[in-house]
Amino acid sequence: MSDTLLVMKFGGTNMQDSGAIRHSASLAGRSLVTGVRVVVVVSAMAGVTNGLLALADAAESGDIAAANDEIAALRTRHFTAAQELGAAPDSATVRDIREMHETLRQAVYGVYLLRELTPRSRDLIVAFGERLSAPLMALALEAQQHRAHALTGGEAGILTDHHFGNAKPLATTYERVRDRLSGLLAAGVTPVVSGFMGETERGAITTLGRGGTDFSATIIGKALGADEVWAWKDVDGVMSADPRVVKDARNITTLSYGEVMELAYFGAKVLHPLAVTPLQESGIPLRVKSAADPDFPGTLVQAQAHDEAGHPVKAVTAIRNVSIINISGAGVLGIPEVIASVFDAIARENITLLMVSQSSSMSNVSLAVQSGDAERTLSALRAGVSRELKVDRQSDVAVLAIVGSGMRGQRGVSARLFTALASQDINILMISQGSSELNISVAIEGLQVDEATRAVHAAFGLGQPVEEIK
Ligand SMILES: Nc1ncnc2c1ncn2[C@@H]1O[C@H](COP(=O)(O)OP(=O)(O)O)[C@@H](O)[C@H]1O
Ligand SMILES: N[C@@H](CC(=O)OP(=O)(O)O)C(=O)O
Q1: Given this model, what pLDDT does residue 103 score?
Q2: Where is substrate annotated to bind (predicted)?
Q3: Fewer Cβ atoms within 10 Å of its own Cβ: the N or the C terminal residue of the chain?
Q4: Which mutation among 8, 42, 49 tests ligand 2's pocket best, with the greatest number of atoms within 8 A of CB?
Q5: First vs last Cα of the chain: how many Å apart?
Q6: Same domain, yes or no, for 107 and 230?
Q7: Strand, helix or coil at 193?
Q8: Which of 23, 242, 266 for mutating ligand 1's site (highest number of atoms within 8 Å of CB)?
Q9: Does 190 lie in the same domain as 52?
Q10: Distance of alpha carbon 140 from alpha carbon 207, whole angstroms
Protein backbone atom coordinates (compact mmCIF):
# COMPACT_ATOMS: atom_id res chain seq x y z
CA MET A 1 0.00 0.00 0.00
CA SER A 2 1.33 3.46 -0.80
CA ASP A 3 1.44 6.16 1.84
CA THR A 4 -0.65 8.48 -0.26
CA LEU A 5 -4.00 9.57 1.13
CA LEU A 6 -6.60 11.42 -0.91
CA VAL A 7 -9.94 12.82 0.15
CA MET A 8 -12.40 12.76 -2.76
CA LYS A 9 -15.60 14.74 -2.82
CA PHE A 10 -18.50 13.89 -5.12
CA GLY A 11 -21.24 16.51 -5.53
CA GLY A 12 -24.91 16.12 -6.33
CA THR A 13 -24.49 15.74 -10.08
CA ASN A 14 -21.94 12.98 -9.57
CA MET A 15 -24.40 11.23 -7.24
CA GLN A 16 -27.58 11.88 -9.22
CA ASP A 17 -28.48 8.27 -10.10
CA SER A 18 -27.03 4.77 -9.99
CA GLY A 19 -25.05 5.33 -13.20
CA ALA A 20 -23.41 8.49 -11.89
CA ILE A 21 -22.69 6.85 -8.51
CA ARG A 22 -21.11 3.84 -10.23
CA HIS A 23 -18.94 6.16 -12.32
CA SER A 24 -17.93 8.16 -9.22
CA ALA A 25 -17.00 4.93 -7.41
CA SER A 26 -14.84 4.00 -10.40
CA LEU A 27 -13.02 7.36 -10.12
CA ALA A 28 -12.15 6.55 -6.49
CA GLY A 29 -11.30 3.03 -7.65
CA ARG A 30 -8.68 4.33 -10.11
CA SER A 31 -6.66 5.49 -7.10
CA LEU A 32 -7.58 2.61 -4.79
CA VAL A 33 -6.21 0.00 -7.20
CA THR A 34 -2.82 1.72 -7.13
CA GLY A 35 -2.73 1.34 -3.35
CA VAL A 36 -3.67 4.95 -2.57
CA ARG A 37 -5.95 5.27 0.48
CA VAL A 38 -9.08 7.28 -0.19
CA VAL A 39 -11.75 8.87 1.98
CA VAL A 40 -14.90 9.53 -0.05
CA VAL A 41 -17.21 12.41 0.90
CA VAL A 42 -20.60 12.60 -0.79
CA SER A 43 -23.38 15.11 -1.35
CA ALA A 44 -27.06 14.34 -1.66
CA MET A 45 -28.31 13.15 -5.06
CA ALA A 46 -28.87 16.20 -7.31
CA GLY A 47 -32.07 18.05 -6.40
CA VAL A 48 -32.62 16.15 -3.14
CA THR A 49 -31.50 19.01 -0.86
CA ASN A 50 -33.91 21.41 -2.55
CA GLY A 51 -36.66 18.75 -2.38
CA LEU A 52 -36.11 18.32 1.37
CA LEU A 53 -36.15 22.06 1.96
CA ALA A 54 -39.38 22.36 -0.02
CA LEU A 55 -41.10 19.53 1.83
CA ALA A 56 -40.09 20.97 5.19
CA ASP A 57 -41.65 24.30 4.18
CA ALA A 58 -44.79 22.51 2.95
CA ALA A 59 -45.15 20.71 6.31
CA GLU A 60 -44.72 23.96 8.21
CA SER A 61 -47.42 25.62 6.15
CA GLY A 62 -49.80 22.71 6.85
CA ASP A 63 -49.59 20.99 3.47
CA ILE A 64 -48.70 17.53 4.74
CA ALA A 65 -49.99 15.89 1.56
CA ALA A 66 -47.43 17.76 -0.56
CA ALA A 67 -44.70 16.92 1.95
CA ASN A 68 -45.64 13.22 1.89
CA ASP A 69 -45.69 13.15 -1.91
CA GLU A 70 -42.16 14.53 -1.98
CA ILE A 71 -41.01 12.03 0.67
CA ALA A 72 -42.50 9.20 -1.42
CA ALA A 73 -40.69 10.46 -4.54
CA LEU A 74 -37.37 10.62 -2.65
CA ARG A 75 -37.96 7.17 -1.24
CA THR A 76 -38.49 5.72 -4.71
CA ARG A 77 -35.38 7.46 -5.96
CA HIS A 78 -33.14 6.07 -3.21
CA PHE A 79 -34.61 2.55 -3.38
CA THR A 80 -34.29 2.45 -7.16
CA ALA A 81 -30.64 3.50 -6.97
CA ALA A 82 -29.93 0.92 -4.23
CA GLN A 83 -31.55 -1.82 -6.26
CA GLU A 84 -29.70 -0.83 -9.43
CA LEU A 85 -26.46 -0.87 -7.46
CA GLY A 86 -27.14 -4.48 -6.53
CA ALA A 87 -28.64 -4.27 -3.01
CA ALA A 88 -30.87 -7.23 -2.16
CA PRO A 89 -34.33 -6.27 -0.79
CA ASP A 90 -33.43 -7.76 2.62
CA SER A 91 -29.90 -6.29 2.76
CA ALA A 92 -28.65 -4.11 5.59
CA THR A 93 -28.39 -1.12 3.21
CA VAL A 94 -32.02 -1.36 2.16
CA ARG A 95 -33.02 -1.71 5.81
CA ASP A 96 -30.97 1.40 6.71
CA ILE A 97 -32.51 3.42 3.89
CA ARG A 98 -36.01 2.33 4.97
CA GLU A 99 -35.33 3.34 8.58
CA MET A 100 -33.93 6.72 7.55
CA HIS A 101 -37.00 7.45 5.46
CA GLU A 102 -39.22 6.50 8.40
CA THR A 103 -37.33 8.89 10.71
CA LEU A 104 -37.53 11.61 8.07
CA ARG A 105 -41.28 11.07 7.79
CA GLN A 106 -41.67 11.38 11.56
CA ALA A 107 -39.55 14.54 11.73
CA VAL A 108 -41.61 16.13 8.95
CA TYR A 109 -44.85 15.12 10.70
CA GLY A 110 -43.56 16.83 13.84
CA VAL A 111 -43.03 20.05 11.88
CA TYR A 112 -46.56 19.73 10.49
CA LEU A 113 -48.11 19.22 13.95
CA LEU A 114 -46.24 22.16 15.43
CA ARG A 115 -46.49 24.32 12.29
CA GLU A 116 -43.01 25.35 13.26
CA LEU A 117 -39.79 24.82 11.35
CA THR A 118 -36.83 25.87 13.46
CA PRO A 119 -33.32 26.09 11.96
CA ARG A 120 -32.55 23.03 14.06
CA SER A 121 -35.38 20.90 12.66
CA ARG A 122 -34.61 22.13 9.15
CA ASP A 123 -31.04 20.85 9.53
CA LEU A 124 -32.24 17.47 10.80
CA ILE A 125 -34.50 17.15 7.75
CA VAL A 126 -32.15 18.49 5.09
CA ALA A 127 -29.18 16.35 6.20
CA PHE A 128 -31.12 13.22 5.23
CA GLY A 129 -30.05 13.87 1.62
CA GLU A 130 -26.42 13.18 2.46
CA ARG A 131 -27.24 10.47 5.01
CA LEU A 132 -29.13 8.59 2.33
CA SER A 133 -26.52 8.91 -0.39
CA ALA A 134 -23.48 7.62 1.55
CA PRO A 135 -24.76 4.00 1.74
CA LEU A 136 -25.36 4.11 -2.02
CA MET A 137 -21.75 5.06 -2.68
CA ALA A 138 -20.58 2.33 -0.27
CA LEU A 139 -22.65 -0.18 -2.27
CA ALA A 140 -21.10 0.98 -5.54
CA LEU A 141 -17.57 0.71 -4.15
CA GLU A 142 -18.25 -2.77 -2.82
CA ALA A 143 -19.69 -3.86 -6.14
CA GLN A 144 -16.30 -2.84 -7.60
CA GLN A 145 -14.49 -4.98 -5.01
CA HIS A 146 -13.42 -2.20 -2.65
CA ARG A 147 -14.27 -2.53 1.02
CA ALA A 148 -16.24 0.54 2.13
CA HIS A 149 -18.16 1.79 5.15
CA ALA A 150 -20.74 4.62 5.24
CA LEU A 151 -20.67 7.15 8.09
CA THR A 152 -22.71 10.25 8.89
CA GLY A 153 -20.75 13.50 9.36
CA GLY A 154 -21.10 13.11 13.14
CA GLU A 155 -19.96 9.50 13.07
CA ALA A 156 -16.93 10.60 11.07
CA GLY A 157 -16.10 13.01 13.91
CA ILE A 158 -17.33 16.34 12.53
CA LEU A 159 -18.35 18.37 15.56
CA THR A 160 -19.73 21.87 15.05
CA ASP A 161 -21.05 24.92 16.84
CA HIS A 162 -24.79 25.61 17.14
CA HIS A 163 -25.20 27.82 14.06
CA PHE A 164 -27.82 25.61 12.47
CA GLY A 165 -27.83 26.08 8.71
CA ASN A 166 -24.35 27.55 8.71
CA ALA A 167 -22.37 25.66 11.32
CA LYS A 168 -18.59 25.80 11.69
CA PRO A 169 -16.35 22.97 12.86
CA LEU A 170 -15.08 23.08 16.45
CA ALA A 171 -11.33 22.85 17.03
CA THR A 172 -11.80 19.38 18.54
CA THR A 173 -13.17 18.08 15.23
CA TYR A 174 -9.78 17.41 13.74
CA GLU A 175 -8.54 15.00 16.37
CA ARG A 176 -11.91 13.33 16.49
CA VAL A 177 -12.02 12.75 12.73
CA ARG A 178 -8.53 11.26 12.93
CA ASP A 179 -9.67 8.90 15.69
CA ARG A 180 -12.80 7.85 13.85
CA LEU A 181 -11.31 7.27 10.41
CA SER A 182 -7.74 6.07 10.95
CA GLY A 183 -8.78 2.56 12.03
CA LEU A 184 -10.93 2.03 8.94
CA LEU A 185 -8.17 3.27 6.65
CA ALA A 186 -5.56 1.07 8.33
CA ALA A 187 -7.85 -1.92 7.82
CA GLY A 188 -8.08 -1.17 4.10
CA VAL A 189 -11.68 0.07 4.29
CA THR A 190 -12.70 3.22 2.39
CA PRO A 191 -14.77 5.50 4.64
CA VAL A 192 -17.72 7.05 2.79
CA VAL A 193 -18.75 10.14 4.72
CA SER A 194 -22.01 12.08 4.35
CA GLY A 195 -20.90 15.60 3.51
CA PHE A 196 -22.59 18.92 4.37
CA MET A 197 -23.48 17.75 7.90
CA GLY A 198 -21.98 17.56 11.36
CA GLU A 199 -23.33 17.46 14.85
CA THR A 200 -23.13 19.50 18.03
CA GLU A 201 -21.50 18.14 21.17
CA ARG A 202 -24.96 17.08 22.31
CA GLY A 203 -25.64 15.17 19.10
CA ALA A 204 -27.98 17.60 17.30
CA ILE A 205 -27.49 17.46 13.55
CA THR A 206 -26.16 20.62 11.91
CA THR A 207 -25.38 21.61 8.32
CA LEU A 208 -22.43 23.62 7.03
CA GLY A 209 -24.23 25.91 4.54
CA ARG A 210 -25.22 25.27 0.92
CA GLY A 211 -22.48 23.52 -1.01
CA GLY A 212 -21.02 22.39 2.34
CA THR A 213 -19.78 19.01 1.17
CA ASP A 214 -16.66 20.72 -0.21
CA PHE A 215 -16.09 22.03 3.32
CA SER A 216 -16.59 18.56 4.86
CA ALA A 217 -13.97 17.18 2.49
CA THR A 218 -11.36 19.79 3.38
CA ILE A 219 -12.06 19.44 7.12
CA ILE A 220 -11.39 15.71 6.77
CA GLY A 221 -8.36 16.42 4.56
CA LYS A 222 -6.83 18.62 7.24
CA ALA A 223 -7.68 16.17 10.04
CA LEU A 224 -5.96 13.29 8.28
CA GLY A 225 -3.07 15.31 6.83
CA ALA A 226 -4.18 14.15 3.36
CA ASP A 227 -1.80 14.60 0.43
CA GLU A 228 -4.53 16.29 -1.60
CA VAL A 229 -8.26 16.90 -1.60
CA TRP A 230 -9.99 16.28 -4.93
CA ALA A 231 -13.39 17.82 -5.61
CA TRP A 232 -14.90 16.03 -8.61
CA LYS A 233 -17.31 18.25 -10.53
CA ASP A 234 -19.44 18.38 -13.64
CA VAL A 235 -17.16 21.13 -15.03
CA ASP A 236 -13.49 20.99 -16.11
CA GLY A 237 -12.40 22.86 -12.99
CA VAL A 238 -12.79 26.39 -11.72
CA MET A 239 -13.58 28.43 -14.83
CA SER A 240 -13.04 32.07 -15.76
CA ALA A 241 -16.83 32.57 -15.42
CA ASP A 242 -19.91 30.46 -14.85
CA PRO A 243 -19.95 28.32 -18.02
CA ARG A 244 -23.76 28.46 -18.04
CA VAL A 245 -23.52 32.22 -18.59
CA VAL A 246 -20.33 32.62 -20.62
CA LYS A 247 -19.92 30.07 -23.40
CA ASP A 248 -16.19 30.63 -23.91
CA ALA A 249 -15.29 30.47 -20.20
CA ARG A 250 -12.04 28.56 -19.84
CA ASN A 251 -10.50 26.43 -17.15
CA ILE A 252 -8.10 28.16 -14.74
CA THR A 253 -5.00 26.02 -14.20
CA THR A 254 -3.94 27.30 -10.79
CA LEU A 255 -5.45 29.54 -8.16
CA SER A 256 -4.35 30.53 -4.69
CA TYR A 257 -6.52 29.79 -1.65
CA GLY A 258 -7.20 33.54 -1.39
CA GLU A 259 -8.33 33.82 -5.00
CA VAL A 260 -10.65 30.84 -4.76
CA MET A 261 -12.18 32.19 -1.55
CA GLU A 262 -12.92 35.51 -3.23
CA LEU A 263 -14.45 33.71 -6.20
CA ALA A 264 -16.64 31.50 -4.02
CA TYR A 265 -17.60 34.43 -1.80
CA PHE A 266 -18.66 36.43 -4.86
CA GLY A 267 -20.97 33.73 -6.10
CA ALA A 268 -18.97 31.18 -8.13
CA LYS A 269 -21.08 28.17 -7.19
CA VAL A 270 -18.21 25.83 -7.83
CA LEU A 271 -16.86 25.73 -4.24
CA HIS A 272 -18.13 26.53 -0.73
CA PRO A 273 -16.66 29.91 0.35
CA LEU A 274 -14.99 28.41 3.43
CA ALA A 275 -13.86 25.21 1.75
CA VAL A 276 -10.18 26.12 1.52
CA THR A 277 -9.89 27.53 5.05
CA PRO A 278 -8.94 24.21 6.70
CA LEU A 279 -6.20 23.73 4.09
CA GLN A 280 -4.54 27.11 4.53
CA GLU A 281 -2.32 26.30 7.50
CA SER A 282 -1.16 22.92 6.28
CA GLY A 283 -0.86 23.95 2.61
CA ILE A 284 -2.70 20.82 1.44
CA PRO A 285 -3.57 21.33 -2.24
CA LEU A 286 -7.15 21.14 -3.49
CA ARG A 287 -7.81 19.91 -7.02
CA VAL A 288 -11.08 20.61 -8.78
CA LYS A 289 -11.47 17.86 -11.38
CA SER A 290 -13.86 16.88 -14.11
CA ALA A 291 -15.70 13.61 -13.50
CA ALA A 292 -16.34 13.39 -17.24
CA ASP A 293 -12.66 13.79 -18.13
CA PRO A 294 -10.63 12.42 -15.19
CA ASP A 295 -7.27 12.72 -16.94
CA PHE A 296 -7.71 16.46 -17.45
CA PRO A 297 -5.71 18.22 -14.71
CA GLY A 298 -8.54 20.60 -13.75
CA THR A 299 -7.70 23.42 -11.33
CA LEU A 300 -5.01 23.21 -8.69
CA VAL A 301 -5.71 25.40 -5.65
CA GLN A 302 -2.71 25.98 -3.41
CA ALA A 303 -0.98 28.58 -1.25
CA GLN A 304 0.85 30.57 -3.94
CA ALA A 305 -0.80 32.44 -6.73
CA HIS A 306 0.51 31.97 -10.26
CA ASP A 307 -0.08 35.02 -12.35
CA GLU A 308 -0.72 34.78 -16.01
CA ALA A 309 1.00 37.15 -18.40
CA GLY A 310 -1.37 39.83 -19.60
CA HIS A 311 -4.16 38.51 -17.38
CA PRO A 312 -4.34 40.54 -14.19
CA VAL A 313 -7.86 39.20 -13.75
CA LYS A 314 -8.52 35.46 -13.68
CA ALA A 315 -12.27 35.29 -13.39
CA VAL A 316 -15.50 37.23 -13.27
CA THR A 317 -18.32 36.14 -11.04
CA ALA A 318 -21.63 37.40 -9.72
CA ILE A 319 -24.03 37.19 -6.80
CA ARG A 320 -27.68 37.48 -7.74
CA ASN A 321 -30.67 38.43 -5.58
CA VAL A 322 -28.95 41.22 -3.75
CA SER A 323 -30.53 44.27 -2.10
CA ILE A 324 -28.90 47.59 -1.33
CA ILE A 325 -29.81 49.15 1.99
CA ASN A 326 -29.25 52.92 2.09
CA ILE A 327 -28.85 54.79 5.34
CA SER A 328 -28.99 58.51 4.81
CA GLY A 329 -29.61 61.80 6.52
CA ALA A 330 -27.59 64.67 7.88
CA GLY A 331 -27.04 62.62 11.06
CA VAL A 332 -24.64 60.27 9.27
CA LEU A 333 -22.34 63.21 8.58
CA GLY A 334 -18.91 62.33 9.87
CA ILE A 335 -20.08 60.90 13.18
CA PRO A 336 -18.25 57.66 13.90
CA GLU A 337 -20.84 56.58 16.50
CA VAL A 338 -23.48 56.46 13.78
CA ILE A 339 -21.37 54.15 11.64
CA ALA A 340 -20.60 52.05 14.72
CA SER A 341 -24.32 51.70 15.51
CA VAL A 342 -24.97 50.52 11.94
CA PHE A 343 -22.32 47.79 12.17
CA ASP A 344 -23.41 46.79 15.69
CA ALA A 345 -26.96 46.26 14.50
CA ILE A 346 -25.73 44.13 11.58
CA ALA A 347 -23.35 42.09 13.73
CA ARG A 348 -26.08 41.29 16.28
CA GLU A 349 -28.13 39.74 13.50
CA ASN A 350 -25.17 37.82 12.06
CA ILE A 351 -25.83 39.26 8.59
CA THR A 352 -23.20 38.91 5.87
CA LEU A 353 -22.35 42.21 4.21
CA LEU A 354 -21.43 41.75 0.57
CA MET A 355 -20.33 45.36 0.03
CA VAL A 356 -20.20 48.54 2.07
CA SER A 357 -19.71 52.05 0.80
CA GLN A 358 -19.90 55.52 2.19
CA SER A 359 -20.52 58.54 0.03
CA SER A 360 -17.76 61.13 -0.02
CA SER A 361 -20.08 63.74 1.51
CA MET A 362 -20.37 61.20 4.34
CA SER A 363 -24.12 61.68 4.45
CA ASN A 364 -24.93 58.24 3.15
CA VAL A 365 -23.88 54.65 3.89
CA SER A 366 -24.90 51.83 1.55
CA LEU A 367 -24.81 48.16 2.39
CA ALA A 368 -25.30 45.30 -0.07
CA VAL A 369 -26.84 42.16 1.43
CA GLN A 370 -28.43 38.98 0.07
CA SER A 371 -32.13 39.75 -0.55
CA GLY A 372 -32.99 36.92 1.86
CA ASP A 373 -31.33 38.98 4.62
CA ALA A 374 -32.79 42.35 3.58
CA GLU A 375 -35.88 42.40 5.83
CA ARG A 376 -33.82 41.40 8.86
CA THR A 377 -31.26 44.08 8.00
CA LEU A 378 -33.96 46.74 7.72
CA SER A 379 -35.56 45.81 11.04
CA ALA A 380 -32.18 45.63 12.79
CA LEU A 381 -31.25 49.08 11.49
CA ARG A 382 -34.61 50.65 12.25
CA ALA A 383 -34.33 49.38 15.80
CA GLY A 384 -30.63 50.07 16.23
CA VAL A 385 -29.86 53.46 14.67
CA SER A 386 -31.09 56.97 15.35
CA ARG A 387 -34.64 57.72 14.19
CA GLU A 388 -33.45 60.77 12.29
CA LEU A 389 -31.79 58.56 9.71
CA LYS A 390 -33.65 57.33 6.69
CA VAL A 391 -33.27 53.63 5.94
CA ASP A 392 -34.51 52.31 2.61
CA ARG A 393 -34.03 49.37 0.28
CA GLN A 394 -33.36 48.84 -3.41
CA SER A 395 -34.16 45.29 -4.56
CA ASP A 396 -33.22 43.29 -7.69
CA VAL A 397 -29.53 44.11 -7.56
CA ALA A 398 -26.53 41.90 -8.41
CA VAL A 399 -22.92 42.16 -7.33
CA LEU A 400 -20.35 41.44 -10.03
CA ALA A 401 -16.72 40.88 -9.08
CA ILE A 402 -13.44 40.44 -10.90
CA VAL A 403 -10.84 38.35 -9.10
CA GLY A 404 -7.11 37.78 -9.56
CA SER A 405 -3.91 38.38 -7.62
CA GLY A 406 -2.35 39.86 -10.77
CA MET A 407 -4.37 43.06 -10.38
CA ARG A 408 -2.36 43.99 -7.28
CA GLY A 409 -0.58 47.23 -8.05
CA GLN A 410 -1.68 47.12 -11.70
CA ARG A 411 -3.08 50.31 -13.09
CA GLY A 412 -6.01 50.51 -15.42
CA VAL A 413 -7.86 47.43 -14.22
CA SER A 414 -10.84 49.34 -12.81
CA ALA A 415 -10.89 51.58 -15.87
CA ARG A 416 -11.18 48.51 -18.08
CA LEU A 417 -13.99 47.15 -15.91
CA PHE A 418 -15.93 50.43 -15.97
CA THR A 419 -15.44 50.88 -19.71
CA ALA A 420 -16.73 47.36 -20.37
CA LEU A 421 -19.84 48.07 -18.30
CA ALA A 422 -20.36 51.51 -19.83
CA SER A 423 -20.14 50.04 -23.33
CA GLN A 424 -23.25 47.98 -22.49
CA ASP A 425 -25.02 50.94 -20.86
CA ILE A 426 -24.80 49.33 -17.46
CA ASN A 427 -25.17 51.66 -14.54
CA ILE A 428 -22.95 51.10 -11.50
CA LEU A 429 -24.77 51.45 -8.16
CA MET A 430 -21.86 50.77 -5.78
CA ILE A 431 -18.13 50.10 -6.09
CA SER A 432 -15.70 48.44 -3.73
CA GLN A 433 -12.16 47.17 -3.87
CA GLY A 434 -10.84 44.76 -1.27
CA SER A 435 -7.69 45.99 0.45
CA SER A 436 -6.05 42.68 -0.51
CA GLU A 437 -6.48 43.89 -4.11
CA LEU A 438 -7.64 40.40 -5.04
CA ASN A 439 -10.99 41.71 -6.21
CA ILE A 440 -13.00 44.68 -7.37
CA SER A 441 -16.75 44.43 -7.02
CA VAL A 442 -19.60 46.52 -8.36
CA ALA A 443 -23.33 46.47 -7.69
CA ILE A 444 -25.52 46.68 -10.81
CA GLU A 445 -29.16 46.11 -11.78
CA GLY A 446 -29.94 42.42 -11.38
CA LEU A 447 -31.47 42.14 -14.85
CA GLN A 448 -28.20 43.16 -16.50
CA VAL A 449 -25.95 40.70 -14.71
CA ASP A 450 -25.50 38.15 -17.51
CA GLU A 451 -24.69 40.70 -20.21
CA ALA A 452 -22.37 42.47 -17.77
CA THR A 453 -20.57 39.20 -17.02
CA ARG A 454 -20.10 38.47 -20.71
CA ALA A 455 -18.88 42.01 -21.46
CA VAL A 456 -16.35 41.98 -18.62
CA HIS A 457 -15.16 38.47 -19.50
CA ALA A 458 -14.51 39.64 -23.07
CA ALA A 459 -12.89 42.94 -22.00
CA PHE A 460 -10.27 41.09 -19.94
CA GLY A 461 -9.68 38.53 -22.71
CA LEU A 462 -10.60 35.70 -20.37
CA GLY A 463 -11.83 33.45 -23.15
CA GLN A 464 -8.42 33.30 -24.79
CA PRO A 465 -5.78 30.74 -23.87
CA VAL A 466 -2.80 32.22 -22.05
CA GLU A 467 0.72 31.17 -21.28
CA GLU A 468 1.32 30.82 -17.62
CA ILE A 469 4.22 32.47 -15.89
CA LYS A 470 5.28 32.01 -12.33
N1 LIG B 1 -16.36 30.03 -12.07
C2 LIG B 1 -16.97 28.84 -12.15
N3 LIG B 1 -16.27 27.76 -12.48
C4 LIG B 1 -16.86 26.55 -12.55
N5 LIG B 1 -18.17 26.34 -12.32
C6 LIG B 1 -18.92 27.39 -11.99
C7 LIG B 1 -18.36 28.69 -11.87
N8 LIG B 1 -19.34 29.53 -11.53
C9 LIG B 1 -20.45 28.80 -11.39
N10 LIG B 1 -20.23 27.51 -11.69
C11 LIG B 1 -21.23 26.45 -11.66
O12 LIG B 1 -20.96 25.58 -10.56
C13 LIG B 1 -21.39 24.28 -10.91
C14 LIG B 1 -20.62 23.28 -10.08
O15 LIG B 1 -20.96 23.45 -8.75
P16 LIG B 1 -21.91 22.41 -8.03
O17 LIG B 1 -23.03 22.00 -8.95
O18 LIG B 1 -22.23 22.89 -6.67
O19 LIG B 1 -20.89 21.25 -7.94
P20 LIG B 1 -21.08 19.83 -7.37
O21 LIG B 1 -22.48 19.68 -6.86
O22 LIG B 1 -20.77 18.96 -8.55
O23 LIG B 1 -20.05 19.75 -6.34
C24 LIG B 1 -21.13 24.16 -12.38
O25 LIG B 1 -22.08 23.33 -13.00
C26 LIG B 1 -21.20 25.59 -12.91
O27 LIG B 1 -22.37 25.83 -13.63
N1 LIG C 1 -26.42 18.95 -0.81
C2 LIG C 1 -25.92 20.18 -0.24
C3 LIG C 1 -24.45 20.14 -0.05
C4 LIG C 1 -23.57 20.15 -1.26
O5 LIG C 1 -22.38 20.35 -1.14
O6 LIG C 1 -24.13 19.88 -2.46
P7 LIG C 1 -23.35 19.94 -3.90
O8 LIG C 1 -22.00 19.30 -3.73
O9 LIG C 1 -24.26 19.14 -4.82
O10 LIG C 1 -23.24 21.38 -4.29
C11 LIG C 1 -26.40 21.36 -1.05
O12 LIG C 1 -27.12 21.18 -2.03
O13 LIG C 1 -26.12 22.48 -0.69
Answers
A1: 97
A2: 49, 130
A3: C
A4: 49
A5: 35
A6: yes
A7: strand
A8: 242
A9: yes
A10: 25
Residue 9 among known ligand-binding residues: yes
- Whether residues 83 and 176 share a domain: the answer is yes
- Does residue 93 line the site of ligand 1, with CB under 6 A? no
Alpha helix ranges (H) inside 115-210: 119-126, 128-143, 173-186
The 10s digit of each residue's pLDDT in 399-419 is 999 999 988 888 899 999 999
- How many separate domains does the chain show? 2
Residue 240 belongs to some domain of the structure: no
Report how far apart, in Å, the C-alpha atoms of 466 and of each of 257, 444, 462 are: 21, 29, 9
Separation in Å, CA 295 to CA 89, 176, 236: 37, 34, 10
Question: Residue 148 belongs to what H/E stretch?
Answer: strand 148-151
Q: What is the CATH number of the domain that holds 205?
A: 3.40.1160.10
- Domain of 97 in residue numbering reads as 5-234
- 379 alpha-carbon distance from chain centroid: 28
* Same domain, residue pair 228 and 341: no
Say whether pLDDT at 40 is over 80. yes
Distance (Å) from CA 104 to ligand 2 centroid: 19
Residue 465 included in any domain: no
The domain boundary, picked from 165, 199, 234, lies at 234
- The rounded distance, in Å, linking the Cα atoms of 131 and 93 is 12
Does the reported pTM lie above 0.90? yes
